């Protein structure tokens, strides 16, 4: 782009340094998440990864997405995962069989994929800069306008999908011959996280 | 900011999630790795949306709208996925993927009870769509 003349590889700006450092923490936490042998620690390192990604969204001036990330992922998805670990009686200490036998094949595939992707991406966007000055590109006002002017129909379809997922989770986690728990019991559970958590609790019975 | 920073971080996170999906045995750990891959895609969408909202004249902010949709779908997916894992655990007493091989092709010819294969098919389907 035009801005390529005034920027350089060897003089990173403050935002770039901050992005790099937070990215380092995020990537390290992701690596620990997929390699640790303690199942509960994996869920807790996932919190660090998702929180780091929220900070990256803030650095990219997408505030609304950052807070939605904190609310949905850190707030509800990790709690659901911890509930799942608890209900499947995951061992608290180290579990020796957390990794399967095809570990080295998986490592090979992942490293090759990473090398190919990074090569292509760096080669393609070598001279492209994001302009972060001026008004934020993802403030609540901008996102709300875009969502409710151009994306109303997908938005409404998504709410139907969430309702279907809610009913599906309840049906799946009922006992085969449920005695006295009607399926409509989670109908007022609101958004996905609450409904699915309720379904999980129901599954514990 | 250079566009390569978020793009490279996203590629690295995606490949970390890929390794986790392929190498883990516990179904819940596989779901965590799927979340990592989805988040890598979200970072890419946001970065390219911020870039294009300045470089182009008028955009629909499609990157951010799609990110919000992805987050909502991921929340639904984790709810359904955990419900399936719990139902498999209740029927089989394990959430180890390597032990759920009723639909595997080939040498093993054990025939389990009637409703167990349905669960496993659903489990695989959930992972495939995630």
Automatic annotation (TrEMBL), chain A:
Highest taxon above the source species: Bacteria
GO cellular component: plasma membrane
Catalytic activity: a quinone + NADH + 5 H(+)(in) = a quinol + NAD(+) + 4 H(+)(out)
Bias (Gly residues) ranges: 187-196
Pfam families named among the record's database cross-references: Oxidored_q3
Similarity-based family: Belongs to the complex I subunit 6 family.
Function summary: NDH-1 shuttles electrons from NADH, via FMN and iron-sulfur (Fe-S) centers, to quinones in the respiratory chain. Couples the redox reaction to proton translocation (for every two electrons transferred, four hydrogen ions are translocated across the cytoplasmic membrane), and thus conserves the redox energy in a proton gradient.
Full protein name: NADH-quinone oxidoreductase subunit J
Organism: Streptomyces cupreus
Lineage: Bacteria, Bacillati, Actinomycetota, Actinomycetes, Kitasatosporales
UniProtKB/TrEMBL annotation, chain B:
Reaction(s) catalysed by this chain's protein: a quinone + NADH + 5 H(+)(in) = a quinol + NAD(+) + 4 H(+)(out)
Domain of life (superkingdom): Bacteria
HAMAP family documented for this protein: NDH1_NuoK (MF_01456)
Enzyme class: translocase
Entry's Gene Ontology BP terms: ATP synthesis coupled electron transport
NCBIfam families reported for this sequence: PRK05715.1-2
Region described as Disordered: 99-130
Signal peptide as annotated in the record: none
Stated name of the protein: NADH-quinone oxidoreductase subunit K
Organism the protein comes from: Streptomyces cupreus
Encoding gene (name): nuoK
Biased composition (Basic and acidic residues): 99-110, 118-130
């Amino acid at each position: 782009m035009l801005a390529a003349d005034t920027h350089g590889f060897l003089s990173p700006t403050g935002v770039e340094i901050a992005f790099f450092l937070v990215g380092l923490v995020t990537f390290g936490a992701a690596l620990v998440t997929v390699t640790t042998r303690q199942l509960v620690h994996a869920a807790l390192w996932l919190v660090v990864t998702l929180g780091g990604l929220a900070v990256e969204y803030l650095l990219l001036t997408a505030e609304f997405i950052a807070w939605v990330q904190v609310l949905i992922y850190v707030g509800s998805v990790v709690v659901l995962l911890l509930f799942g670990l608890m209900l499947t009686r995951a061992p608290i200490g180290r579990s020796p069989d957390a990794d399967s036998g095809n570990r080295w094949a998986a490592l090979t595939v992942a490293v090759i994929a990473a090398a190919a992707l990074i090569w292509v991406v760096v080669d393609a966007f070598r001279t492209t800069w994001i302009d972060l000055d001026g008004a934020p590109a993802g403030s609540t006002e901008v996102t709300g306008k875009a969502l409710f002017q151009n994306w109303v129909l997908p938005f409404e379809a998504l709410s139907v999908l969430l309702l279907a997922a809610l009913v599906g989770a309840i049906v799946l986690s009922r006992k085969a011959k449920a005695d006295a728990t009607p399926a409509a019991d989670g109908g007022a559970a609101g958004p996905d996280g609450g409904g699915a958590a309720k379904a999980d609790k129901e599954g514990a019975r | 900011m250079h566009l390569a920073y978020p793009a490279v971080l996203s590629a690295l996170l995606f490949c970390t999630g890929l390794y986790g999906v392929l190498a883990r045995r516990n179904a819940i750990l596989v779901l965590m790795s799927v979340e990592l891959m989805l988040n890598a895609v979200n970072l890419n969408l946001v970065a390219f949306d911020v870039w294009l909202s300045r470089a182009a004249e008028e955009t629909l902010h499609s990157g951010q709208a799609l990110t919000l949709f992805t987050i909502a779908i991921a929340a639904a997916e984790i709810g359904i996925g955990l419900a399936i894992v719990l139902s498999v655990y209740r029927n089989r007493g394990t959430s180890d993927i390597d032990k759920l091989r009723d639909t595997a092709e080939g040498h093993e010819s054990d025939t389990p009870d009637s409703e167990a294969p349905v669960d496993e098919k659903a489990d695989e389907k959930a992972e495939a769509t995630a």
